[in-house]
Fold these 4 entries.
Entry 1:
Amino acid sequence: MGMLKKAGLIQVRRGTGGAEIQKPLNEITLLDVYHAVEVVEEGELFQFHDHPNPSCPVGATIQSVLELILMKAQEAMELVLKEVTMEDIITFLNKKIG
């Protein structure tokens, strides 16, 4: 909740006051939420071993081979998240529930 508040997505009231959404749901995207909760550092969705064995032909080169591919995969995921709003999620949920 604190991360969502810091991102300006919600306002939290002390005590039993609860939380209130600060923007219209059609203006909050899944990408906004993804960034707000700091799931990963920007551009670092996919992680590599910090100290690969330099004697291992795969371990020594796999990062450079996969880096561009995985960066493109992260960009594609973020483009999808940017297109889905919280209003969309609620609409989908309501259709499924009922």
Note: The helical segments are 2-6, 30-36, 57-83, 86-97.
Entry 2:
Amino acid sequence: MTTENGLARIGKTVVIRGEVKGSEDLIVDGHVEGTIGLAESRLTIGPTAHVTADLTAKDVLVLGQVQGNIVASGRVELRAGSVVQGDVRALRLAVEDNAIFRGKVDLTQGAKSHDGAGA
């Protein structure tokens, strides 16, 4: 199990307007407006977070509120109590009971693994 420089966190009282980019896992507990791009990393939107941004990451876990589109090369998880308004494009999507989601889902990235070769 390898971790790259640990974990970065945006605290509950932090407000960021603009572009957040990085190459390490990030937990957002505060307020972000703009874009978040973590192409090779995991993004966690904490239960106290209010995010108005387009999100791009390897994996995205949503516990709080997101208004914007989510693009993940891996998995998107919407946990109970989360609120997402925007489109989701990912390889896999998991939505727990009591999660609120308004938008479109595109899971076609997964279609390339079903090319008829192998079992």
Note: The chain has one domain: 7-106.
Entry 3:
Amino acid sequence: MRARTCIMGLMMVTILATGCSTTNQSGMASAEQEYVPPTSIYNILDSTAMIYSDPSAGSPINDNPLRWLGFMLHPIGQALDYAVNRPIYKLASMFPYATGYTQEDAMVDAQRR
């Protein structure tokens, strides 16, 4: 029984090891493969990429119907921000120890327009 368990274990390890060693290449030489250019010539970490490119120019017109819903609901969200959220932040900043208002909260509140 022990020998059978060892043989089964070795077979499983062999199958798993050979399964991970395949390359999934179709057998084509690298010279025959078609070149696929990158979607952007700019590096994603390049801080000047947004200056030299216009992402909205590459997006399709009317790309998502929910975007129009967002445009219509934006003024309502702004009104709720001024009527509810900002007074709560102001009240919390008056009692920082009782409410847990931190320096990060103060920074976020200061960055609002």
Note: The mean pLDDT is 77.
Entry 4:
Amino acid sequence: MSELLAPRRMVELEVDGQPVRVFEGSTILDACRRLEIDTPTLCYGETLEPANVCRVCVVELEGSRVLVPSCSRKAEAGMKVHTDSERVRLSRKLVLELLASSVDLSTTPVAAGYLERYDAEPGRFGPPAPPSDDRDRARTGHHEAPDGRTAATVQQPVKVDNELYVRDYAKCILCYRCVDACGEQHQNTFAIAVAGRGFDARISTELATPLPESACVYCGNCIEVCPTGALVFRSEHELRAAGDWREEEQTVTETTCPYCGVGCSLELHVQSNRIVKVTSPADHDITLGNLCIKGRFGFSHVQD
């Protein structure tokens, strides 16, 4: 019992020349945020264990041969970290260029800012990924650029096979968030996983079965953690397709889910007096942003 009640020790390190103290077990990213240093992240999710796949959060650590991912590298006493060195900026720029040249980042909220911040030029690696209205003609594999070059992309038609949510994997950056949320970190349903290798790597159900025939329980927790809009409510997808999605006009009302006695917190996103999607606060001690099918999708009766 005494070990459980023992106070956590602090470690002191230096980030961009500034000393900072964080609790033992914290990451370099935690230290950066404590100093209010804006460190870009894509695959990192507050409620999930770091997957270390996007590499836009890398920083330079004195004494380390390679750049280290700040989202997972534990802070140690005496560390000297540089978050905006020439080496770090070049690495982040290259990662963003490779992503933007092969994936549709149009619905990734932070992408445009990151591309501008690091002067990224995705065109160096071929034409951009086709926008949503060209998606029906897309195929997994290669397409020819206007100048005759062949650009490698991973494109799939939008998957609309149920009434609740849509999968647009041409926007997927393989951050593993949805796999982790569906798996042992949150839902323990294991309906999806990464299939294929190289340019053919993709998120898929078992044997690529349609979602209604898979193990999916439609909790929608994969949507909650998706950072790019590859997984969205069907209502949002249809509004975007019609050009009627107006997030700046939406209001968010917090309420309590009425379906059972757990009392999960809901955030109702309302546009033109209609609920268009439901989320849950990620900092909720019990749910961590997770809901069940009723809490996430059971709102249509309000509008009937």
Note: The first strand starts at residue 10 and ends at 15.
